[in-house]
Amino acid sequence: MGIPFECDLCHFRNINKRDPELTSSKDGHTLMCIRRANLDACWSRAESTVRSNLNRIVMDTQSAEFTLELYDYLPKLGWSKLEDRVGMAIALVTLNSSLRPGKYAGHLQYGSMRKTPTWFNNVYSAGSQYMSDTLYAQDEKKVHATNCVVAGEWFVRFKLGAKLRMGQIRKQNEAFTPAIIHALDKVAQDVWDNSVDEDELKKVKELMAFVLMETCGCLRGEEVPLLSLQGLLTFWEESTSDETPFIMLTLRGKFKGEGDLRWHCIPIPCQTKSGLPVLKWIRRMVRRLVVDENRTVGWAFADPEGRQRKLGHYDPLLIDMLDKVKTHFPGVINLVTDVNDFSLWRSGRRGAITEATNQGVDQNTIDLMGRWRKREKARGTEPGLPMRQVYTQVKSSVKGMLLFAKSF
To answer: Other C-beta atoms within 10 Å of 384: how many?
Structure first.
């Protein structure tokens, strides 16, 4: 199988430096978990591969020993030292963490479980075992040497075996459609017309603006809160009074795959094919921020202390409003669809790409919006570039980018 093997008892001794106590339920449970980790590591490879390797070993050694004079040529198996050389201890911690309840199942999924060896590797690198050796370096990308057990072959096989055994339950967010957004608009407008609760009105305005920005901008949920109020206001008059009115979303932050803070400018149309109320709700949000709260800088989506809001702040209200949509607007949301499967995390982006495809939008236009980070990187959007320069670069592509959401 190509990895070190030791029995359950030896692993227990390596970890605890003693024999297990037969009367200890804790020791018994530890031995059971060791067996589980051993089996995960051993069966990370397909049974046919293991059998093929074994058959080849037998065939080659029998043939060689029949015709050749050889002495002690095979590697010695086993381990004579009393130490945990493969990381069994942290493998047990990892397995134990997987027993915690998950979001979609009675236990954590592999994707969450594997965070345990990640933090162990970080702690290891911060401790006395830190190594500064660099194996490979190009530009700012470097590969460093490490002796951490979680980077070893046995532990890698253990994780793969656990993943194969546990499987993965994938649950995508349901996609927003123009019909759903129009129904949300009606529910939100009812709150706007009848509520006297200022906090409720504020949250509804921000939620609707969030939904429309995420969908029309084909943004990921975690990207929308990066909207800069100062940037939004800077280009508000210029963009909304354009011959093809649009709103320029100015995002400021460090995005996945980037090492520095950057500005990103994403245009969304004020008018779409089905009449999505883009300008109505974003203008209401901006008016509240500027007039009622007297704010012109900071994050557009912020708490009273000015800290950036997380999308999770709005999800409960979204689910509540979608439940009303399902009740009062039959057919807009499929009866078998659980409204809890919607989320600001990805529902907007999934809905945007799906709707654009259904409307026959050119794939290059979809890519222009869906892969805007890649496009900006290719065009030379460097970290630290002033917002106005980023805006100028994007301005030349605005008409093409607006074709995406105008089809909704």
So the answer is: 8
For the stretch 325-366, pLDDT in tens is: 999 999 888 888 888 889 988 888 888 888 888 888 888 777
Q: How far apart are CA 172 and CA 89, in angstroms?
A: 34
What would the pLDDT profile of 125-163 be if each residue is shown by its tens digit? 887 777 666 555 555 566 777 888 888 889 999 999 999
Q: Which amino acid is at 368?
A: L
> Residue 272: what pLDDT?
87
Residues in the chain: 408
pTM: 0.72
Side chain identity at residue 255, one-letter code: F
Contacts of 372 (CB under 8 A, 6+ apart): 218, 264, 266
CA torsion angle 112 257 149 15 (round to 10): -30
Q: Is the pLDDT of residue 372 over 60?
A: no
In 3D, which of 269, 302, 223 has the Cα closest to residue 408? Answer: 269
Judge whether 38 and 8 are in contact, CB under 8 Å: yes
Q: What's the maximum distance between 2 C-alpha atoms anywhere in the chain?
A: 95
